[in-house]
Each structure stands twice: as structure tokens, then as C-alpha cells.
Amino acid sequence: MIRCLAIDDEPLALRQIENYIDRIDDLRLEAKCSSAHDAIAVLEKIEVDLLFVDINMPDMTGIDFVRGLENPPQIVFTTAYSEYAIEGFRLDAVDYLLKPFSFDEFAHAVDKVRSLMELYELRNSSAPTPEIEPIAESDENDCISIKADYKVSLVRYADIIFMESVGEYIRLHLTKGACITTLFRLKNMESALPADLFMRVHRSYIVNLKHVSGYSRGNVLLDNGEHVPVSAAYRDAFREFVDRKRPM
Asked: Which string of DSSP letters, residue by residue, matches the chain?
């Protein structure tokens, strides 16, 4: 369960965040505050995993509030002012939601928080890497070696559904629900993968084209039921792929 604290001087904004949190099973709203000073008092009494912080508040800005925290939890800034974005990300915020934001945008920010928390748990635990079936000799040209948890695993291209960037790491989402997290940059991984099989669709995502089941409202639909966003920089290339698949 991800324990949350929402901070905003606008009652309607607090109510929206509370409603969005209620719609996500693994989120729990521990408290909501209308000022940064109230939030400081709350954090002296309870621990939380995630802060939703408005930036433009009268008594103390969200930027100053987060900057003053000794050991801040995960941070998602919420504001109507885009000019604060760069400063927000300098404080290692996971995301920056520009008001008014939709539930889908909120849920995507939570997904990024969840991924980072799982990554930190993985780094601090001795849990073994998910079992990967051995590679047959005939498959040697159809796999990639991934170093994780002090060993190297050979992973079939066909078993990789998509990859996502999580800071300095990459998480590989595999068939059968398995995941592997490795220290690597997505740009370098893109260069190492066969271009006829994998496509970059976002600065944070690479998809296996064999696992693409559709495209809707700016999202790639995957055959494991998940979807990833397509950013403007990669939209034309992905649409060309989709058009090639249409019957003549």
C-alpha cells in the first residue's frame, strides 16, 4: 500500500486528488492539508510514501516545502503554472501534473511512483531474478544478455513485451508477468535491439512490435493488457507501422 499525503490550498483540488486516490486500489490517503505548514506538522506524526504537492501556495511554496524536507518521500507536484516544472524536476520529483489534469494523467504518475518504489525494493532485497527459461542453441541470435542481480540472463526477444526507463535503470516487462530491472540507458538499449522488431514510442518506452495488439488515443495497446503512451516525436513512425499492417 502506498501511503499518500495531499497538500493544496484549493479545497476543490484536494477533493479531486482524494477522489482519484480512492479509485486506485494500492493508494491510501493518510491526510490532506491546505498549507505546507500543516503538512509539516502532519509529517512529524506519520510517515508517508508519496506527496501530492501544490506549488503556488500563500504561506510557503511547494518547492520551498519539499526543499526543506530532510528525507522526502516520492514527490508529484500539482500546479496550474508550467513555469515551475524545471525547478520541480531539479528536486527529483517523479512527475509534474499541470492543472487541470485527468485521472489517466494522475494514474500514469502513480505508475511511475510505483515503478520507482519497486525498483528501490529490488535493489535493497535479496529476492532472486524471475526464472527465465534456458536458451536453446538455435535461439542464440534471437536473444539479448541482461545483467541483473549479480548474474547475466539470456532473454529471448520474443519474451520481451516492452521496456520502460526508470531513472538510470530499464525495466523489461516479460511474458508470464515476469520483470527484470537492469542498470542501462534506454537509448543504448534501443541501439542494441533489432529495429525490425522493437520500436521506441516514447522517451521512456520501447515496445516489441510482435506484442502490439492495437493503437487508441495516443496509446500502444499490448497483448498482455497493458498500454504505453506514444509521444509526438515517435507518433508518425508508429502510425506508419500500423498502416503497413492494414489489409490492402
From this structure: -EEEEEE-S-HHHHHHHHHHHHTSTTEEEEEEESSHHHHHHHHTT---SEEEEES--SSS-HHHHHHT-SS--EEEEEES-GGGHHHHHHTT-SEEEESS--HHHHHHHHHHHHHHHHHHHHHTS-PPPPP-PPPPGGGGGGEEEEEETTEEEEEEGGGEEEEEEETTEEEEEEGGG-EEEEE--HHHHHHHS-TTTEEEEETTEEEEGGGEEEEETTEEEETTS-EEE--HHHHHHHHHHHHHTS--
